[in-house]
Protein backbone atom coordinates (compact mmCIF):
# COMPACT_ATOMS: atom_id res chain seq x y z
CA UNK A 1 0.00 0.00 0.00
CA UNK A 2 1.47 3.33 -1.06
CA UNK A 3 1.99 6.03 1.56
CA UNK A 4 -0.07 9.21 1.27
CA UNK A 5 1.50 11.93 -0.84
CA UNK A 6 3.25 14.60 1.22
CA UNK A 7 1.64 18.02 1.17
CA UNK A 8 3.47 20.81 -0.62
CA UNK A 9 4.59 23.47 1.84
CA UNK A 10 3.83 27.16 1.31
CA UNK A 11 5.85 29.59 3.42
CA UNK A 12 3.96 32.70 4.53
CA UNK A 13 5.53 35.90 5.83
CA UNK A 14 3.63 37.92 8.47
CA UNK A 15 4.23 40.55 11.11
CA UNK A 16 4.16 39.27 14.70
CA UNK A 17 1.28 41.27 16.18
CA UNK A 18 -1.99 39.63 17.17
CA UNK A 19 -3.84 41.56 14.47
CA UNK A 20 -1.29 40.66 11.79
CA UNK A 21 -1.51 36.98 12.70
CA UNK A 22 -5.32 37.13 12.70
CA UNK A 23 -5.20 38.51 9.15
CA UNK A 24 -2.63 35.93 8.07
CA UNK A 25 -4.73 33.10 9.51
CA UNK A 26 -7.77 34.47 7.67
CA UNK A 27 -5.89 34.30 4.37
CA UNK A 28 -4.58 30.80 5.13
CA UNK A 29 -8.07 29.55 6.02
CA UNK A 30 -9.42 30.86 2.71
CA UNK A 31 -6.64 29.10 0.80
CA UNK A 32 -6.91 25.85 2.78
CA UNK A 33 -10.57 25.57 1.84
CA UNK A 34 -9.61 25.84 -1.84
CA UNK A 35 -6.31 23.95 -1.82
CA UNK A 36 -6.46 21.20 0.84
CA UNK A 37 -3.35 19.57 -0.65
CA UNK A 38 -1.18 22.48 0.56
CA UNK A 39 0.41 23.02 3.96
CA UNK A 40 1.03 26.58 5.16
CA UNK A 41 3.87 27.52 7.50
CA UNK A 42 4.06 31.07 8.89
CA UNK A 43 7.31 32.95 9.47
CA UNK A 44 6.97 36.04 11.67
CA UNK A 45 8.95 39.17 10.92
CA UNK A 46 9.72 42.35 12.85
CA UNK A 47 9.33 45.55 10.85
CA UNK A 48 10.75 49.03 11.41
CA UNK A 49 7.25 50.19 12.29
CA UNK A 50 7.02 47.55 15.01
CA UNK A 51 10.44 48.34 16.43
CA UNK A 52 10.47 52.15 16.47
CA UNK A 53 7.63 53.28 18.74
CA UNK A 54 8.97 56.51 20.22
CA UNK A 55 8.58 58.71 17.13
CA UNK A 56 5.88 59.84 14.72
CA UNK A 57 5.90 57.90 11.46
CA UNK A 58 6.66 61.06 9.50
CA UNK A 59 9.82 61.62 11.56
CA UNK A 60 11.37 58.50 10.06
CA UNK A 61 11.70 60.12 6.64
CA UNK A 62 10.05 59.37 3.31
CA UNK A 63 12.44 56.64 2.15
CA UNK A 64 12.11 54.68 5.40
CA UNK A 65 8.41 55.32 6.01
CA UNK A 66 7.42 54.05 2.56
CA UNK A 67 8.05 50.47 3.65
CA UNK A 68 7.67 50.91 7.38
CA UNK A 69 5.42 47.89 7.92
CA UNK A 70 6.25 45.86 4.81
CA UNK A 71 9.98 45.84 3.96
CA UNK A 72 11.02 42.97 6.24
CA UNK A 73 8.27 40.80 4.76
CA UNK A 74 9.23 41.82 1.23
CA UNK A 75 12.88 41.00 1.95
CA UNK A 76 11.76 37.46 2.82
CA UNK A 77 9.95 37.22 -0.52
CA UNK A 78 12.94 38.47 -2.49
CA UNK A 79 15.24 36.08 -0.60
CA UNK A 80 12.79 33.27 -1.50
CA UNK A 81 12.36 32.26 2.13
CA UNK A 82 8.64 33.08 1.82
CA UNK A 83 6.12 32.27 -0.90
CA UNK A 84 3.79 35.17 -0.14
CA UNK A 85 3.37 37.92 2.45
CA UNK A 86 0.20 39.15 4.16
CA UNK A 87 -0.28 42.87 4.86
CA UNK A 88 -2.92 45.32 5.93
CA UNK A 89 -3.46 46.82 2.50
CA UNK A 90 -3.43 50.36 3.92
CA UNK A 91 0.20 49.79 5.00
CA UNK A 92 1.43 48.84 1.53
CA UNK A 93 3.31 51.48 -0.49
CA UNK A 94 1.74 52.25 -3.85
CA UNK A 95 5.05 51.43 -5.56
CA UNK A 96 6.27 47.91 -4.79
CA UNK A 97 9.87 46.71 -5.01
CA UNK A 98 10.99 45.35 -8.37
CA UNK A 99 10.10 41.70 -8.66
CA UNK A 100 7.04 41.83 -6.39
CA UNK A 101 3.34 42.14 -7.16
CA UNK A 102 0.11 42.71 -5.24
CA UNK A 103 -1.54 39.39 -6.11
CA UNK A 104 -4.69 39.42 -3.96
CA UNK A 105 -7.01 41.90 -2.26
CA UNK A 106 -9.55 40.35 0.07
CA UNK A 107 -13.16 41.38 0.58
CA UNK A 108 -13.19 44.74 2.26
CA UNK A 109 -14.54 45.08 5.75
CA UNK A 110 -15.96 48.36 7.02
CA UNK A 111 -13.21 50.95 6.35
CA UNK A 112 -14.30 53.58 8.87
CA UNK A 113 -12.21 54.95 11.69
CA UNK A 114 -13.46 54.68 15.25
CA UNK A 115 -13.00 56.44 18.57
CA UNK A 116 -12.26 54.64 21.83
CA UNK A 117 -12.99 56.82 24.86
CA UNK A 118 -11.10 56.68 28.17
CA UNK A 119 -13.05 54.77 30.85
CA UNK A 120 -13.07 57.83 33.15
CA UNK A 121 -15.22 59.69 30.60
CA UNK A 122 -17.44 56.70 29.86
CA UNK A 123 -18.29 56.55 33.56
CA UNK A 124 -19.84 59.99 33.05
CA UNK A 125 -21.82 58.85 30.02
CA UNK A 126 -19.44 60.35 27.42
CA UNK A 127 -19.17 58.09 24.37
CA UNK A 128 -18.40 60.45 21.44
CA UNK A 129 -15.66 62.91 20.53
CA UNK A 130 -18.14 65.80 20.47
CA UNK A 131 -19.00 65.16 24.11
CA UNK A 132 -15.38 65.36 25.29
CA UNK A 133 -14.33 68.60 27.03
CA UNK A 134 -12.21 71.23 25.30
CA UNK A 135 -8.51 70.54 25.51
CA UNK A 136 -8.95 66.78 25.48
CA UNK A 137 -5.90 64.79 24.37
CA UNK A 138 -6.48 62.45 21.42
CA UNK A 139 -3.99 59.73 20.50
CA UNK A 140 -3.15 58.79 16.90
CA UNK A 141 -0.12 57.97 14.78
CA UNK A 142 -1.74 59.01 11.48
CA UNK A 143 -1.19 62.38 9.80
CA UNK A 144 -4.54 61.94 8.02
CA UNK A 145 -6.40 61.42 11.28
CA UNK A 146 -4.50 64.27 12.90
CA UNK A 147 -5.46 66.67 10.09
CA UNK A 148 -9.13 65.65 10.28
CA UNK A 149 -9.19 66.02 14.06
CA UNK A 150 -7.58 69.47 13.94
CA UNK A 151 -10.12 70.58 11.35
CA UNK A 152 -13.20 69.30 13.18
CA UNK A 153 -12.08 69.62 16.82
CA UNK A 154 -9.70 72.61 16.93
CA UNK A 155 -9.59 72.69 20.75
CA UNK A 156 -8.27 69.14 21.04
CA UNK A 157 -4.59 68.38 21.60
CA UNK A 158 -3.24 65.66 19.31
CA UNK A 159 -0.58 63.38 20.79
CA UNK A 160 1.38 60.67 18.98
CA UNK A 161 0.31 57.14 19.90
CA UNK A 162 2.22 54.18 18.44
CA UNK A 163 2.08 50.42 18.92
CA UNK A 164 -0.24 47.50 18.16
CA UNK A 165 -3.89 47.65 19.22
CA UNK A 166 -3.26 46.00 22.58
CA UNK A 167 -0.46 48.48 23.34
CA UNK A 168 -2.64 51.42 22.35
CA UNK A 169 -5.50 50.25 24.54
CA UNK A 170 -3.15 49.77 27.49
CA UNK A 171 -1.79 53.29 27.07
CA UNK A 172 -5.35 54.62 27.05
CA UNK A 173 -6.72 52.55 29.94
CA UNK A 174 -3.78 52.48 32.34
CA UNK A 175 -2.67 56.10 32.19
CA UNK A 176 -4.16 59.58 32.05
CA UNK A 177 -2.16 60.57 28.96
CA UNK A 178 -5.10 60.31 26.54
CA UNK A 179 -8.81 61.10 26.68
CA UNK A 180 -9.51 59.06 23.54
CA UNK A 181 -7.72 57.28 20.71
CA UNK A 182 -8.58 56.96 17.02
CA UNK A 183 -8.23 53.55 15.37
CA UNK A 184 -9.35 51.59 12.31
CA UNK A 185 -12.62 49.91 13.24
CA UNK A 186 -11.80 46.82 11.18
CA UNK A 187 -8.56 46.25 13.09
CA UNK A 188 -10.36 46.18 16.42
CA UNK A 189 -13.01 43.81 15.06
CA UNK A 190 -10.42 41.44 13.56
CA UNK A 191 -8.61 41.52 16.89
CA UNK A 192 -11.88 40.60 18.66
CA UNK A 193 -11.97 43.99 20.38
CA UNK A 194 -15.00 45.40 18.64
CA UNK A 195 -16.79 45.86 21.95
CA UNK A 196 -14.27 48.58 22.85
CA UNK A 197 -15.38 50.82 19.98
CA UNK A 198 -17.41 53.75 21.31
CA UNK A 199 -18.04 55.77 18.16
CA UNK A 200 -17.85 55.01 14.44
CA UNK A 201 -16.67 58.18 12.70
CA UNK A 202 -18.81 58.97 9.63
CA UNK A 203 -17.04 58.48 6.31
CA UNK A 204 -18.54 61.63 4.76
CA UNK A 205 -16.74 63.86 7.29
CA UNK A 206 -13.89 61.62 8.51
CA UNK A 207 -12.38 60.07 5.39
CA UNK A 208 -10.85 56.63 5.81
CA UNK A 209 -7.36 55.52 4.76
CA UNK A 210 -6.59 54.22 1.27
CA UNK A 211 -7.16 50.46 1.18
CA UNK A 212 -8.32 50.40 4.80
CA UNK A 213 -10.44 47.34 5.54
CA UNK A 214 -8.82 44.98 3.02
CA UNK A 215 -5.94 42.55 3.34
CA UNK A 216 -3.26 42.66 0.64
CA UNK A 217 -1.24 39.59 -0.33
CA UNK A 218 2.10 40.08 -2.06
CA UNK A 219 4.31 37.59 -3.91
CA UNK A 220 7.07 37.45 -6.51
CA UNK A 221 6.00 38.64 -9.94
CA UNK A 222 7.59 35.62 -11.67
CA UNK A 223 5.79 33.08 -9.46
CA UNK A 224 2.85 32.42 -11.75
CA UNK A 225 1.59 29.42 -9.78
CA UNK A 226 1.29 31.44 -6.58
CA UNK A 227 -0.28 34.36 -8.42
CA UNK A 228 -2.96 32.08 -9.83
CA UNK A 229 -3.57 30.56 -6.39
CA UNK A 230 -3.95 33.97 -4.74
CA UNK A 231 -6.35 35.19 -7.42
CA UNK A 232 -8.91 32.77 -6.00
CA UNK A 233 -9.24 34.78 -2.77
CA UNK A 234 -9.46 38.20 -4.43
CA UNK A 235 -12.77 40.03 -4.10
CA UNK A 236 -13.15 41.84 -7.43
CA UNK A 237 -15.34 44.69 -6.20
CA UNK A 238 -13.04 45.43 -3.28
CA UNK A 239 -9.99 45.13 -5.54
CA UNK A 240 -11.37 47.66 -8.02
CA UNK A 241 -12.16 50.19 -5.29
CA UNK A 242 -8.84 49.76 -3.50
CA UNK A 243 -6.80 49.91 -6.72
CA UNK A 244 -8.56 53.15 -7.68
CA UNK A 245 -7.74 54.63 -4.26
CA UNK A 246 -4.11 53.45 -4.50
CA UNK A 247 -3.81 54.97 -7.96
CA UNK A 248 -5.00 58.34 -6.66
CA UNK A 249 -2.58 58.12 -3.71
CA UNK A 250 0.27 57.27 -6.09
CA UNK A 251 -0.38 60.35 -8.23
CA UNK A 252 -0.61 62.51 -5.11
CA UNK A 253 2.71 61.01 -3.93
CA UNK A 254 1.11 60.07 -0.63
CA UNK A 255 1.79 57.24 1.82
CA UNK A 256 0.18 55.14 4.53
CA UNK A 257 0.45 57.90 7.17
Automatic annotation (TrEMBL):
Family in the record: Belongs to the HMBS family.
Taxonomic placement: Eukaryota, Sar, Stramenopiles, Oomycota, Peronosporomycetes
GO biological process, one term: heme biosynthetic process
Sequence ranges assigned to domain Porphobilinogen deaminase N-terminal in this UniProt record: 10-227
Catalytic reaction annotation: 4 porphobilinogen + H2O = hydroxymethylbilane + 4 NH4(+)
Source organism of the structure: Phytophthora megakarya
Gene3D superfamilies, A to Z: Periplasmic binding protein-like II (3.40.190.10)
Keyword Transferase: yes
Record's protein name: hydroxymethylbilane synthase
GO CC terms of this entry: cytoplasm
Signal sequence, renumbered to the chain: none
Enzyme Commission no: 2.5.1.61
InterPro entries to which the protein is assigned, alphabetical: HemC (IPR000860), Porphobilin_deaminase_N (IPR022417)
Gene Ontology molecular functions: hydroxymethylbilane synthase activity
Keywords: Porphyrin biosynthesis, Transferase
Pathway as given in its UniProt record: Porphyrin-containing compound metabolism; protoporphyrin-IX biosynthesis; coproporphyrinogen-III from 5-aminolevulinate: step 2/4
Purpose: Tetrapolymerization of the monopyrrole PBG into the hydroxymethylbilane pre-uroporphyrinogen in several discrete steps.
Amino acid sequence: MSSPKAKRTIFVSSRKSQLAMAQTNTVIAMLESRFPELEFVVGQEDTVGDQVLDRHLSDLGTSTASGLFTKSLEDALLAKTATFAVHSLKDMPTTLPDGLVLAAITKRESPEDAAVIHPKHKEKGIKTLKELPEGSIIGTSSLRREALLRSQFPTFEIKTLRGNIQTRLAKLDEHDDYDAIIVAACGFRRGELGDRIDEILPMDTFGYGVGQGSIGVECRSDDEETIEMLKTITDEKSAQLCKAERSLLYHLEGGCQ
